[in-house]
């Protein structure tokens, strides 16, 4: 959905709420929201980006902007990071990760970016990335939590289920 398509929904919601006790909303926790795309090639390798600001590979994607839906944030970030304007398919995994070091805790969405032909031209974003890599998950140099999240995403591709995780661990009953 495009954000402007929400205008009718906003109208149905009525006037924004006022705080009965000013300042309460400002004291509430604020989580970061991130979206990434699981993009594969016909051989089953995953497209990873090589960030210049952290030591491990990551999925194409990034932080969702204020007022931006996670799916559109994913599409925008993929376009900005690797130059692909792909349709973002269904949601595969929602995962919460705790804050560590300079990063706040996050709710991370992994969307299905589909399978693209081998040799598709990619344009890594110069100011954030040093390159891209096609890797099989088993051999990719990723953090253990991302490996767990991607294992769940691959399971979601196979089963058609959307999975809910915390720190890459499937919640019981999911």
Task: Give a quick summary of the entry.
This protein has 174 residues and is an alpha/beta fold. It has one domain (31-170): Nucleoside Triphosphate Pyrophosphohydrolase (Alpha-Beta Complex), CATH 3.90.79.10.
Q: What are the segments in which pLDDT stays under 50 over at least 5 consecutive residues?
A: none
> Largest sheet, if any?
6 strands, mixed
Number of helices: 4
Query: Would you tell me which CATH topology applies?
Result: Nucleoside Triphosphate Pyrophosphohydrolase
> What is the number of beta strands?
8
Head-to-tail CA distance between termini:
26 Å
Strand portion: 25-35%
Shape: globular
The CATH class designation is: Alpha Beta
Which structural category fits the helices and strands?
Answer: alpha/beta
Q: Percent of residues in helical segments?
A: 10-25%
What is the alpha-carbon Rg in Å? 17 Å
- CATH structural architecture: Alpha-Beta Complex
The sequence of SSEs as H and E is HHEEEHEEEHEE
Number of domains: 1
CATH H level, superfamily name? Nucleoside Triphosphate Pyrophosphohydrolase
Overall mean pLDDT score? 91
Strand arrangement, major sheet: 3-1-5-4-7-8
């Amino acid at each position: 959905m495009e954000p402007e398509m929400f205008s009718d929904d906003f109208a149905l919601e009525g006037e924004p709420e006022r705080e009965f006790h000013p300042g309460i909303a400002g004291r509430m926790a604020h989580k970061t929201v991130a979206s990434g795309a699981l993009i594969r090639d016909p051989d089953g390798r995953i497209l990873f980006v090589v960030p210049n600001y952290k030591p491990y590979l990551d999925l194409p994607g990034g932080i969702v902007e204020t007022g931006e839906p996670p799916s559109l944030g994913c599409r925008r970030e993929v376009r900005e990071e690797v130059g692909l304007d792909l349709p973002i398919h269904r949601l595969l995994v929602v995962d919460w990760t705790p804050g560590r070091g300079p990063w706040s805790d996050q709710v991370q969405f992994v969307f299905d970016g589909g399978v693209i032909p081998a040799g598709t031209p990619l344009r890594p974003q110069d100011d954030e990335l040093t390159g891209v890599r096609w890797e099989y998950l088993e051999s990719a140099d990723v953090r253990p939590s991302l490996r767990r999240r991607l294992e769940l995403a691959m399971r979601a591709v196979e089963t058609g289920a959307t999975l809910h995780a915390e720190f890459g661990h499937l919640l019981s009953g999911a």
